[in-house]
Design goal:
The structure holds two protein chains of two kinds. Chain A is α+β, with helices and mostly antiparallel strands. Chain A has one domain: Glutaredoxin (3-Layer(aba) Sandwich), CATH 3.40.30. A four-stranded mixed β-sheet of chain A has the order 2-1-3-4, with helices on one face. Chain A is globular and about 30 Å long. A nine-stranded mixed β-sheet of chain B has the order 5-4-7-8-3-9-10-11-12, with helices on both faces. A nine-stranded mixed β-sheet of chain B has the order 17-16-18-19-15-20-21-22-23, sandwiched between helices. The N and C termini of chain B lie far apart (132 Å). The chains are: A alpha+beta, B alpha/beta. At the A-B interface, helix 1, strand 4 and helix 3 of A face strand 6 and helix 6 of B.
Chain lengths: 106, 563
Amino acid sequence: MSEPDADTDSDGGRYHLRLYVAGQTPKSLAAMANLRCVCEEHLAGRYDVEVIDLLLNPKLAAGDQILAIPTLIRRLPAPLKRIIGDLSNTDKVLVGLDVRPRGGGS
Amino acid sequence: MLDNLLARAALPKAPTGISGFDDITFGGLPAGRPTLICGAAGSGKTLFGITFLVHGAVQFNEPGVFISFEERAEDLTANVASLGYNLDGLVAEGKIAIDYVRVERSEIEESGEYDLEGLFVRLGFAVDSIGAKRVVLDTIETLFSGLSDTALVRSELRRLFGWLKDRGLTAVITGERGEGQYTRLGLEEYISDCVVLLDNRVQDQITTRRLRVVKYRGSAHGTNEYPFLIDEDGVSVLPITAAGLIHGVSTDVVSSGVPAMDAMLGAGGFYSGSSVLLSGLAGTGKTTLSAILADAACNRGERCLFFVFEESADQICRNTRSMGLDLQKHIDSGKLRFEAARPSLYGLETHLARMHRDLVRFKPHVVVIDPISALRGPAVEVQSTLLRMVDLLKSRGITAVFTSLQNDGGLTDGADPALSSLMDTWIKLVDMEANGEMNRVLYVIKSRGMSHSNQFREYRMTNAGVEIIAPYIGPEGVLTGTARVTQVARKYAAQLRRRQDAEQRQNELHRRRGVMESQIAEMRGALEAQEQEASRLLAEDDAREVALETDRAAVAARRGDTE
């Protein structure tokens, strides 16, 4: 579900996200759906998402220190951010991605 | 008994290769099941785990996976390199896989439900990539601090241990020691097959590592606390049990190296495999006598292990060289080994543990412990240590010589009665003060099973070794030193005088005999003269009788009557 869009910002403002799942579990499916909603709403046009299924590529798990499933990694912008869970708590996702400052409102 | 237990143990075991541990667990950890190793920080949990994996990979052809939650793989490799483990090499050979799982709460934002499938994936991948049979999780409790959902972590751990069992993996899970329970977070709740407790106790500023198998479902195991060692030779556990008095005994006799002492002992030396105590004050020659004994053993071609607590090996070699002993020769030929350590360097248990390890490795025939009195500690502990030490040596049939420095010169006081009753032979070295000089005297207090000498013997240390001098016991007791020398001179003079007297008496007798004999000859001469006279008279009488008869016949013929 990569969605590179023509954006006003240069690459510096782009979000490179990577979502790790393990098979098509309810939690994984929920995470994908929730991520799409959040991104579309808050990062429209300036993100791309790579979904990695660890059941297919188990050796990728160690590289990004994946422990919990699902895990969302913000690879860019630096620093690396890590959010675990099905991303159902949108506020925490936004805080975790630094889209919204910690404790701030929308 | 061990064989019985082994025969009964249907439970398959995965040997750890840790010397001693496999003995107390009768084979190792439960194969295909998780084992919990718990202990406080620095108690050696990680090293135990690494050792389990390395031995598995090297000795038992069982590859292993190390999942580290605390140390990075590089740090781990560096840390165990000092034990002689080449983790990098084993990783390159595909015998060990190391995965560092980083759990840092501050870096993790939680949003919604999750599980720990990622850990399972990583573990599964690592296991599959090398065909692992063994797994170490060190320290899995880190998960609790990294993730907020404790209930989830618990259920995932339960699932993990189930998963490990399903895969038939022999797993070691380390856990931090907690108050009132084995682990801080109650891991023992999930891992109930085998729990091993590591302990690192400090007493009187001396640390002793101990290990205890708390439980082992489905198997017999040693229940005591056993000291264990972590040193340059890796981890070793020391199953030192008082195995009862069922030592095989020997009637072979080994020489003490001093012929006169062998003679004093009656049987011509010590029984092979017996315990000998040499006690005496400073400077009585305990170490020297031990060194002579060691030298004699090495000359017989036996191996001798010399534990020294107060001197260095070089010092002993130098000092005994002045007596004509060349111990260096035996060291070079590998028959003699010195193990020198300060008594305060380790706790009693650790000393014992090291000793045990050295005995197993060096397999000596003769062991010298010099001096045993250097081992200080609470009386109960010292005694139990000595008891086990004696036991350890006896059960292996090793002739053991202990030296003990005594504080007072009494015969039976001063020496630890418990120690002396453990000994088969007790030789006491005493300084005797008399006439302004100190002389060394030795005495065999006891020697079980031998009709040993009951005498004090003076001995001297000369540049040709130890010389035991024939006893001189005068009316005032044993005489030593110059007193002995003068007494011997006096005795010699008296002897001379007695001999002269006897000769004189002999001469007198001789003279009298001469006189008597000449008198006898004179009397015999007189008697003979008388006898000759008597026989002459008798002959005259006879002749006269014949003449009378002849005369009477002639007269009758002349008368003419014939009758």
